[in-house]
């Protein structure tokens, strides 16, 4: 199916460059989604939506002019081209001719979620509820949610790009509240991917079980220690640390504005020689994967850190042009209502030779941070803070008591340099990444990683 | 296109599709955004959008659907999808439309002056914000200077015969400035909000960004200790926004609020008074009626330190045997109404910031917190969040500090408020909040 005829796209681009401009792009999208949740034993909030829209932008030197409309009607597209073009003062340019939009290689979707009855989605949530409640009598509340989305995307630009993508994602999330003697703790887990119903249909109880285990574990938690300690960060969602503390600083918009501590550091040794990290938007079925990015560039694997050296930033078309390189396929946007900016896809440390037990075994006193409740970083300085949602003390090489209320406070450059061990158990988890007012699905991940020393802020004194 | 007609049409279509009751929210608006960098326009946008969302009730079950196609057939498709979605839900005996509807007049939600501002003048204003920040000695760069505005209308209709609508305008601008270099690079943010660009002071916004960044240059990690802490208005607003979300009856009933079972208790120092007020003409989130058609009203939440009530929509009120406080909030047509705060107002006290410092004696002045939403346990209220700011030494502002965490729990923090500042301002942090700086008697500070 085609959203917009290439002939119409060509007319829109021609109109938008009729008073000049270096580059014009028409991004067209049809979105549909469905979500449903369960809370307090009750299935609620079934909701669906359908949106169609387009975003047009014209780039003139360092400036971008853009507009977006709801719908794909010819008169609306031509009107937005006319209105954007008003802002430009120059000589008309002729865009390169356009062929039919080429559909990107898709990610396999075995069972389109729209083929599945809503009642089965409700049953999936009930299964999670039952499983979590069966874990222990202390489980007091269970909340589960399921969401699916499909985004059909077409991108046309004045440099002959004519590309299309069809993206289906599903995600299941479970939150469990456990209560004992006035103590109340929560645990979360989720599973998401660029995939169909098959991803969540298989063993949804695993997600519920993980959430329950985390909440129950915290009931026995002791106050977190305070001070500088060695930290082993868990695989999978533990990679949010890399995403926040390093990844954002590698996005070319931050780099070019010198708003990143990694600006001007290409080729520098930033980590031990056994540290390699990638951003990879092609990994089959992963949450942050797509066929093309939101500027029509095919996604790919970009090595950002190779054997400890910084080797690449992450680019969209605009920032790549400024640096005289090719886009790395990281121009992403939340929807047709937004401009693309450099964003990570799936970002992770490459597996190393160590084992999680080996990394932990060498620590006298430290923290094992299995999962984070979220985090924040200031890209200009690299300073970060993360809340540890599941963490344990490490004492004499053994994982001992669970801790609560721990935060990791530090600096990305220092933490990266302090990585002194990487295990082989790579895993990618699904999250949402917010930047410039836009939220996009991003895969975070890593094997178990050890950091020589970090500031742990706790509640214990 | 008349939005009230669209909403009424959607309600009729849902009823035809078999809904026992229905409600539709239609919306239309335009927004512009100007971003400048280094004296030039970096991006400029002009965008329009419209959509409708339908809530359909069928025998106690409810479903929701939305779409961007406001034609008759588009609206019918949305209404039918909402009615279909309802089938998947479990029945809820407390659900359904409100029994009473109405509107409360709120003056000045829309400024006529907005349309008189050309794009060129908005660009000038944004450049003036950037200039004001960059001109300060010590500012190395202005990462962002952004102007944004929105003009919109909404309409709500339901199958009990209620139809109403309103228009609102909003303009805001912010800048983030850098001071220092390398590992000592510090950032600061300045912002302003109004009903039109005339309500924004570009000099003040730029200067605030610069001053907040400059104040942190040379920051070091402080020593760990327990001490009095002054939260500036930004940080107080962030905490109040979080506390407001915990006062939602929905969070309480779902067992996800530390304030459950605390109604009537002394949860704060008597110096602290907090209200939710959607009728304040200056409040960015003010509206004549809420997301399900209940008239807007002011709700006192904490007075004399006592927790007076939670915030209710119709469903949570029925469940608790109470009446709605008019807090069914709607982010957009893309989501059904849910309990939410409107404008949270922390009543100002009588102390200037310098007096708060004097009363603190030796402590910490926090001007920024990071990771609040991930750092607070919503059920227990314990938190440990990253922070930066200045030391307070001998009752005066001392050297800048960073890479530290402050830890406590929310109720202990509210109960140990020692004084409330007099300079309150509107801040769009974690919702719409009006807050002054506050002095907390003691908190755990972790640093080196």
What is the count of helical runs of chain A?
Answer: 10
The ordered string of helix (H) and strand (E) elements of chain B is: HEEEHHEEEHEHHEEEHEEEHEHEEHEEEE
Q: How would you describe the shape of chain B?
A: globular
Structural class of chain B, please? alpha+beta
How are strands sequenced across the largest beta sheet of chain B? 3-2-1-4-5-6
Main structural class of chain A: alpha+beta
The total of beta strands of chain B comes to: 20
Count up the helices of chain B: 10
Rg for CA atoms of chain A: 24 Å
The largest sheet of chain B is:
6 strands, antiparallel
Return Rg of chain B in Å: 24 Å
Q: How many strand units of chain A?
A: 23
User: Of all protein chain pairs, which has the greatest interface, and how many residues does each chain bring to it?
Assistant: A-B, 80 and 74 residues
What is the beta-strand fraction of chain A?
Answer: 35-45%
User: Strand share of the residues of chain B?
Assistant: 35-45%
Account of the protein in words:
The complex is a heterodimer of chains A (461) and B (448). Chain A is an alpha+beta fold. Chain A folds into 3 domains: 6-35 and 47-103, no CATH class; 113-154 and 161-220, PmbA/TldD fold (2-Layer Sandwich), CATH 3.30.2290; 223-457, no CATH class. Chain A is 21% helix and 42% strand. Chain A has 10 helices and 23 strands. In chain A, strands 1, 2, 3, 4, 5, 6 and 7 form a 7-stranded mixed β-sheet that branches. A 6-stranded mixed β-sheet of chain A has the order 12-11-10-15-22-21, covered by helices on one side. A 5-stranded mixed β-barrel of chain A has the order 9-16-17-19-23. In chain A, strand 16 and strand 17 form a beta hairpin. The radius of gyration of chain A is 24 Å and the shape is globular. Chain B is α+β, with helices and mostly antiparallel strands. Chain B folds into 2 domains: 3-214, PmbA/TldD superfamily (PmbA/TldD fold, 2-Layer Sandwich), CATH 3.30.2290; 219-448, no CATH class. Helices cover 23% and strands 38% of the residues of chain B. Chain B is built from 10 helices and 20 strands. Chain B has helices spanning 3-16, 72-86, 119-134, 202-214, 233-246, 249-253, 314-320, 353-360, 372-375, 410-415, and strands at residues 21-37, 40-58, 61-67, 139-158, 163-179, 186-194, 225-231, 274-276, 299-303, 306-307, 328-329, 338-339, 343-346, 363-370, 382-393, 396-409, 417-420, 425-427, 432-435, 438-446. In chain B, a hairpin with a 2-residue loop joins strand 15 and strand 16. Chain B starts with a helix and ends with a strand. The mean pLDDT of chain B is 94. The chains are: A alpha+beta (461), B alpha+beta (448). The interface between A and B is large, with 80 and 74 residues. Strand 2 (42-60) of chain A pairs parallel with strand 3 of chain B, so a sheet runs across the interface.
């Amino acid at each position: 199916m085609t959203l917009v005829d290439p002939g119409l796209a060509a007319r829109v681009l021609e109109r938008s460059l009729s008073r000049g401009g270096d580059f014009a792009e028409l991004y067209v999208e049809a979105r549909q989604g469905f979500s449903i949740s369960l809370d307090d034993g009750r299935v609620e909030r079934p909701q669906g939506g359908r949106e169609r829209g387009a975003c047009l932008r014209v780039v003139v030197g360092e400036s971008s002019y853009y507009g977006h409309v709801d719908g794909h009607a010819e008169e609306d597209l031509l009107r937005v081209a006319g209105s954007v073009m008003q802002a430009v003062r120059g000589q008309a340019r002729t865009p390169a001719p356009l062929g039919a939009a080429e559909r990107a290689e898709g990610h396999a979707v075995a069972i389109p979620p729209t083929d599945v009855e809503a009642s089965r989605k409700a049953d999936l949530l009930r299964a999670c509820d039952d499983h979590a409640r069966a874990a222990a009598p202390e489980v007091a509340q269970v909340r589960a949610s399921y969401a699916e989305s499909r985004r059909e995307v077409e991108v046309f630009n004045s440099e002959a790009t004519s590309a299309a993508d069809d993206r289906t994602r599903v995600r299941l999330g479970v939150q469990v509240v456990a209560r004992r003697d006035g103590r109340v703790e929560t645990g979360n887990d989720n599973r998401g991917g660029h995939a169909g119903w098959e991803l969540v249909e298989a063993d949804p109880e695993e997600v519920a079980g993980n959430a329950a285990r985390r909440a129950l574990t915290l009931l026995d938690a002791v106050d977190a220690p305070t001070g500088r300690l060695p930290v082993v960060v868990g695989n999978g969602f533990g990679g949010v640390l890399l995403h926040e503390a390093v990844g954002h600083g590698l996005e070319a918009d931050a780099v070019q504005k010198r708003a990143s501590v990694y600006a001007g550091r290409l080729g520098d040794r930033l980590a031990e020689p056994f540290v390699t990290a990638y951003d990879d938007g092609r990994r089959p079925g992963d949450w942050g994967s797509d066929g093309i990015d939101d500027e029509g560039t095919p996604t790919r694997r970009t090595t950002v850190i190779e054997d400890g050296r910084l080797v690449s930033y992450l680019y969209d078309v605009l920032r790549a042009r400024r640096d005289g390189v090719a886009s790395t396929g990281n121009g992403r946007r939340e929807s047709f209502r937004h401009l693309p900016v450099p964003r990570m896809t799936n970002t992770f440390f490459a597996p190393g030779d160590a084992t999680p037990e080996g990394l932990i075994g060498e620590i006298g006193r430290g923290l094992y941070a299995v999962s984070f409740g979220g985090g924040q970083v200031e890209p200009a300085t690299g300073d970060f803070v993360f809340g540890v949602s599941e963490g344990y003390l490490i004492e004499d090489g053994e994982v001992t008591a669970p801790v609560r209320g721990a935060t990791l406070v530090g600096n990305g450059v220092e933490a990266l340099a302090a990585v002194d061990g990487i295990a082989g158990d790579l895993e990618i988890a699904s999250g949402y990444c917010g930047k410039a007012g836009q939220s996009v699905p991003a895969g975070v991940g890593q094997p178990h990683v050890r950091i020589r020393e970090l500031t742990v802020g706790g509640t214990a004194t | 296109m008349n939005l009230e007609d669209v909403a009424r049409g959607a309600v009729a279509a849902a009823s035809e599709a078999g809904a026992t009751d229905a409600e539709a929210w239609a919306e239309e608006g335009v927004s512009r955004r100007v971003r400048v960098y280094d004296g030039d326009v970096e991006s400029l946008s002009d965008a329009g959008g419209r959509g409708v969302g339908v809530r359909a009730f069928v025998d106690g079950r409810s479903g929701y659907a939305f779409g961007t196609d406001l034609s008759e057939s588009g609206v019918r498709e949305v209404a039918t999808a909402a009615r279909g979605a309802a089938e998947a839900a479990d029945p809820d005996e407390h659900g359904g439309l409100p029994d009473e509807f109405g509107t409360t007049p709120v003056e000045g939600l829309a400024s006529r002056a907005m349309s008189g501002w050309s794009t060129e003048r908005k660009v000038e204003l944004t450049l003036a914000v950037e200039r004001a920040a960059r001109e300060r000695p010590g500012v190395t760069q202005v990462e962002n200077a952004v102007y944004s505005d929105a003009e919109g209308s909404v309409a709500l209709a339901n199958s009990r015969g209620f139809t109403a609508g309103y228009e609102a305008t909003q303009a805001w601008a912010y800048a983030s400035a850098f001071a220092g270099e390398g590992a000592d690079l510090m950032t600061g943010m300045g912002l302003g909000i109004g009903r039109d660009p005339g309500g924004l002071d570009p000099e003040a916004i730029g200067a605030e960004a610069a001053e907040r960044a400059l104040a942190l240059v040379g920051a070091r990690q402080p020593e760990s200790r327990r001490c009095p802490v002054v939260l500036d208005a930004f940080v107080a607003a962030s905490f109040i926004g979080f506390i407001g979300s915990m006062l939602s009856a929905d969070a309480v009933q779902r067992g996800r609020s530390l304030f459950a079972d605390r109604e009537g208790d002394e949860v704060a120092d008597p110096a602290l008074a907090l209200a939710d007020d959607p009728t304040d003409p200056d409040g960015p989130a003010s509206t004549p009626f809420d997301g399900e058609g209940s008239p807007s009203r002011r709700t006192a939440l904490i007075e004399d330190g006592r927790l007076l009530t939670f915030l209710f929509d119709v469903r949570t009120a029925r469940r608790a045997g109470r009446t709605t406080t008019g807090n069914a909030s709607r982010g957009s047509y893309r989501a059904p109404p849910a309990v939410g705060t409107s404008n949270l107002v922390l009543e100002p006290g009588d102390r200037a910031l310098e007096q708060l410092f004097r009363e603190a004696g030796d402590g910490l002045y926090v001007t920024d917190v990071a990771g609040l939403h991930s750092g607070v346990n919503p059920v227990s209220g314990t938190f440990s969040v990253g922070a930066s700011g200045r030391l307070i030494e001998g009752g005066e502002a001392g050297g800048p500090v960073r890479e530290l965490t402050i830890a406590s729990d929310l109720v202990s923090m509210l109960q140990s408020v020692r004084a409330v500042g007099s300079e309150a301002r509107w801040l769009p942090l974690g919702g719409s909040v009006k807050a002054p700086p506050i002095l907390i008697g003691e908190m755990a500070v972790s640093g080196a």
